[in-house]
Amino acid sequence: MTRARMPRPHEVAAAKRDPRLLRAVREQQGDDAWRTRGACQTVDPETFFPAPSEPADAAVALCRTCDVQGACLAWALEVGDCHGVWGATTPRERRAMLVAWRSDVPNPGLTGPTPEHRMGPAVCLPLLPIQRVGRTDKRDPVGAAS
Predict the structure, then answer these.
(1) What is the DSSP letter of 126?
(2) Cα angle 9, 12, 17; round to 5
(3) In the prediction, which pLDDT does 112 show?
(4) How far apart are alpha carbons 23 and 73 in whole angstroms?
(5) Going by C-beta distance under 8 Å and a sequence separation of 6 or more, which residues neighbour residue 91?
(6) Is the pTM of this model over 0.85?
(7) Tell me: the pLDDT tens digits for 68-115?
(8) What CA–CA distances, in Å, run from 92 to 12, 58, 65, 124?
(9) Please, which residues bridge with residue 86 across strands?
(10) Average pLDDT value over all residues in the chain
(11) pLDDT score for 7
(12) N or C: which terminal CB in the chain sees fewer CB atoms within 10 Å?
């Protein structure tokens, strides 16, 4: 598995102007039942979670026709989900959008929750395994016989 990289400043700037993100900002406080109306309801869920070496074109194309695309993307950004296709975006696109989403406001003309009301990490990156490091001091632990 490869480690996701932090989005570069020009990618974040482009994400702030992305119409999909602007739609998500507008639709984030909308109907909570958006999932029941998604075009994805009739498709195998694995379509939206392709392997890293497989294209996500089919899922993105289906999402582009969906009426709840903005609410779907807003949900994924709010919870910090960086796996699969949500709101016609790939994980790589969403990483840059997530930085923009958690920054001040992507578009000053649009209202939404302020950054301090949003929860979750600033950027989603895969967790790395914890490496156990051996003890460097050779003293006996407390209570051990000498």
Answers:
(1) P
(2) 130
(3) 44
(4) 9
(5) 4, 82, 83, 84
(6) no
(7) 999 999 999 988 887 899 999 999 899 999 988 888 544 444 444 444
(8) 11, 16, 21, 10
(9) 89
(10) 76
(11) 86
(12) C
| Helices vs strands, H then E, count in the chain | 5, 0
86 in Cβ contact with 73 (< 8 Å): yes
Domain boundaries, the chain: 9-117
* Cα-Cα-Cα-Cα dihedral sign, residues 126, 132, 136, 142: positive
pLDDT tens track for 60-69? 999 999 999 9
* Closest CA relative to residue 83, chosen from 121, 54, 126: 126
Residues 6+ apart with CB under 8 A from 134: none
Structure tokens at 106: 């992507």
List b or e across 2-29, with b for residues whose CB sees 16 or more CB atoms inside 10 angstroms: eeeeebeeebbebbbebebbbbbbbbbe
* Binding site per annotation, positions for [4Fe-4S] cluster: 40, 63, 66, 72
Which pLDDT does position 113 carry in this prediction? 44
Whole-angstrom distance, CA of residue 114 vs CA of residue 69: 22
- In the annotated binding site, the residues are 40, 63, 66, 72
Q: Is the pLDDT of residue 43 over 60?
A: yes
